[in-house]
Amino acid sequence: MKELLTGNAAVATGVRLCNVDYIPAYPITPQTEIIELLSRWINERKMIARFVTYDSEHSMITGAGAASLTGARTFTATSSQGLLYAFEMLYNLSGWRAPIVLANVSRALAAPITMEPDHNDVLAARDSGFIQIHAETCQEVLDSVIMAYRIAEDNRVRLPVIVNLDGFYLSYTREPVMVPQEDEVAKFLPQYRPTFGYLNASNPISMGVSVLDSSAYSYFKYQIHLASLNALRVHEEVSSEFEKMFGRRHGLTDEYMLNDADYVIVMTNSFTTMGKAAVAKLREEGKKVGILRIRMIRPFPKQEIAKKLEGKKAVAVIDQNISVGSGGILYPEIVSALYHIKERPGAIISFVGGLGGKRISLSEFRHIASTLEGAMSGEAPKVQSVLLFTEDNWSSVKEMLKIAGKGDVNG
Amino acid sequence: MITVTLRGRGGQGIKTGAHVIGTAAFLSGFYVQDQPLYGAERRGAPISAYVRISRQVILDRGQIDNPSLVVIGEESLMGMASDNPPHEISESTVILVNSPLSKSDLASRYNIKNSLIVFDLVKLSSGIIEKPHLGIAVAAAACKLLGLNFDFVKESIIKELVNIQVNRDEIARNVDLASKVFDTISPVTITTPREAYRESGILEPKYHEPAISTCAITATGNSMLRDRAQWSNYKPVIDYDKCTKCMVCYVYCPDSAYTIDSEGYPIVDYDACKGCNICKTECPVKIITLVERNKR
Lengths: 411, 296
Known about the structure:
The complex is a heterodimer. Chain A is an alpha/beta fold. Chain A folds into two domains: 2-192 and 209-246, Thiamin diphosphate (ThDP)-binding fold, Pyr/PP domains (Rossmann fold, 3-Layer(aba) Sandwich), CATH 3.40.50.970; 254-396, Rossmann fold (3-Layer(aba) Sandwich), CATH 3.40.50.920. Chain A has helices at 7-17, 32-43, 57-68, 80-85, 87-96, 120-124, 138-153, 182-188, 214-246, 271-284, 302-309, 330-338, 362-376, 391-403, and strands at residues 2-6, 22-25, 50-53, 75-78, 101-106, 131-134, 161-166, 174-178, 253-256, 263-267, 289-294, 296-298, 314-319, 347-352, 386-387. In chain A, the strands form four sheets. In chain A, strands 9-11-10-13-14-15 form a six-stranded mixed sheet, sandwiched between helices. The model of chain A has no long low-confidence stretch (mean pLDDT 96). Chain B folds into two domains: 2-184, 3-Layer(aba) Sandwich (Pyruvate-ferredoxin Oxidoreductase, domain 3), CATH 3.40.920; 228-292, 2-Layer Sandwich (Alpha-Beta Plaits).
């Protein structure tokens, strides 16, 4: 049935359909609606699960890992500062190989404080061992939750998964979403029956042990890496099966007007929707631009990205995040994915945009397109990340600086 | 694509109103996207919500810049420095306002040259419902302007009110009110507004010294872009004949809107007061009353 759902409701609906057993919870804007809905449905008996409120995100994630290791299908959700507060336990969960699904509703990090999204929160967790799937639409959010459990619980992977959705732009935005039938989801995602690492009273085991031998540490850590890399293949299988059953395909990447494009803009998450509108406009003006959206960020689909970008004239990477002191986080990963291919794009330029949820205007997309064209006609490509920030943006900031007591500041 | 911006106060049901419009359009077979815009506000503070309606897949997100239709929940929201409707609309935008004033009075008071539709919720709801749901009423009016069928509007209202756990009787009364509002409004042409495109060059910010570039506020009176006095339609008034100068109001005020004069009496700065009612609740001798603010 097609319904209007917010991104948050899409997450909760996915969780309900996946027959989750245990939900540890702690509120934070813009995620709270997810756990509010789940607790309401449990109260109304629309869902049979255990809902437990914790005293912080740190203990919430710990509880999620422990519950998962008893064989319970586990879900939890957080945002921003909450994810960072849980940080050290993220690495433990992947080390324990606890296959939970965590919805992260992206919200930029303080200070200054904001409620709106960028991806410094979720990308801070990129080395933690969590698989990361980043969604563009509310439909994709729901579908990704269902796919995430299949990937997480597969014995070739057995790792926790983050499904990421943007605060506001998805979390509170309602869109038409096709809600799958319960019995179909049950067929696609059978009951979780772990075959190992299963804590139970009659068969005691010790989890998360200390290894004072460094070669043992290397072995276990690298196993996590291999498991993560396996997720690329497992994802493709799950994706095909999902398409067969539900008629929608979600790949490692997604593309828009990419095939015949000379210039490509690489993006992630919900801002890609605005990117598509801009590309459609630029096409009308005769510019052959396309979009490659990276959906799975961990493991990083290097080969697929190389395949999609090989032979293109120039590539722009929009990072909706900033690694302070370096620039966009995904940019160097894209560059390294392209370095050894035969027909490498002539220029790969880094843009940082949409920080703190700042919309990327058509003006800014035009600037990206002309920078790419310029780079092909001999202009020296920029080495540093270019901030997508306009004269209009500066005049409003200037006005606020004045009100805050900083006087007249020159740009 | 048709776009709608709704303006109201937190607690009036503006978010639900946007959902009612969204669901009604969705049931009518359109692609729809709707979204409330939350900030750090609370009950009584001005809020906005948006609806996009299209025959094609919607390739846009977030705030709406130049809406086809602006829906204003009550007249007090029209005169605000930060949220003045004429600042973000074009000449083709239709404005729908709930107000007891006449169309010509409103147009001259706020200098509006746009197509203006006015309805009086208090008058329309009398005899039907004691506490009308403002969001539902404005949504019904907007749906009429958008040319939607009332059957879908009714279905949408029921769906959305069930969803926020309103009881059956209240839902029925709100549907009756919506039907009356729907019949009162005469349709006008709502158009796709021209694109709010502005070319603005890329600017690379320079480094500024920490005294500037740290996110700190050094100035007092720094809330001029947000008229806090508009966060409530009510303000506290002190009966000084009975005031004991205990200063409890001064201590409890969360916005430091109270000062103490040379004789020890509390004074309210009405530009800083958000009308939260805490002083009235805490006053041990109960001599603070809330009175309606003068309409601006």
